[in-house]
Structure prediction request, 340 residues.
Amino acid sequence: MIIVLKAGATGQEIGLVEEKIEAYGLAAHTSRGVERTIIGAIGDERKMQPEAFEGMECVEKVLRILKPYKIVSRDFQKEDTVITVRGQNIGGGTVALFAGPCAVEGREMMLGIAAQVASCGASFLRGGAFKPRTSPYAFLGLGEEGLKYLAEAREATGLPVATELMDPRDIDLVVKYADVIQIGARNMQNFRLLTEVGRLDKPVILKRGLSATIMEWLMSAEYIAAEGNRQIILCERGVRTFEPSTRNTFDVSAIPVVKSLSHLPVIADPSHAAGKMSLVEPLAAAAIAAGADGVMIEVHHDPETALSDGPQSLRPDTFGEVAARLKGIATAVGKTMGKA
Ligand code: PEP
Ligand code: MN
Prediction:
């Protein structure tokens, strides 16, 4: 249930509504907008009658939300959420540019690629230290050693770092080094993991699951938001279909659909959608044109010898050229791209 307060409701009145919600055994999530304060009552709504609130002086209206996600919905917050990490925005009028290798393979490579993508205008570094690989015999990442190289790359470039967290047991470790926590496609419905990152005060990239519907994806975001963490960035990375020409089928329509249903920023990962370097640029361009708040692109200094996802990784010089052209698309849709 959403309780919309009258313009000018006082802090004391807001407190009374929150207390009443809590007395029913539900949680109150308050969103103070520019014009109105909206309070979401999250929990089993059957316990609560709208009339109990409609009679309150400060209440304008009470809406039942039939959607199974609430806090992340546009009904709950009209304005777009903008997330700022070390001075870099995700959402609003910026197209964030995440770039870096699929996996951190070593110190020299990480520092080298980081310097190159930074000089091409990237606004965030990416790189996996814990890799969810289909085969248990594939390169599974350097673990903490990889996180240390990412942190060193951040010091050298000033760019915030996004890296994947696969297991609640690694939370303290990953939190210590990362600026943005990535929940990978394979873990989109790992509800325990979602609940844990929901308790953090750190932005979370939530990738769309391998075969997840938009509704399932938003409900996973709600798991994070329900624990208090509203710094969620949704990432479309393609879904599995019958089409074998690409690694996944990039669902460009998901971008405007999600943006209409949710106030959260939406970025796109054309690398994992395409699976091929030649397709990364057109998919990234389509994503930005469709309203994406950012793109995440894998970059490797030598894709032939990459320990993971070489075929979809751009060489740094190609990345620079692609980034410059994508900037033109961002400008065409009235946004700025990359580093502030
Ligand atoms: C990644 O970003 O390195 C990754 C593994 O992506 P996804 O979870 O989308 O497959
Ligand atoms: Mn990858």
In short: Residues 102, 128, 132, 184-186, 207, 237, 269, 272 surround phosphoenolpyruvate (ligand 1) (CB under 6 Å).
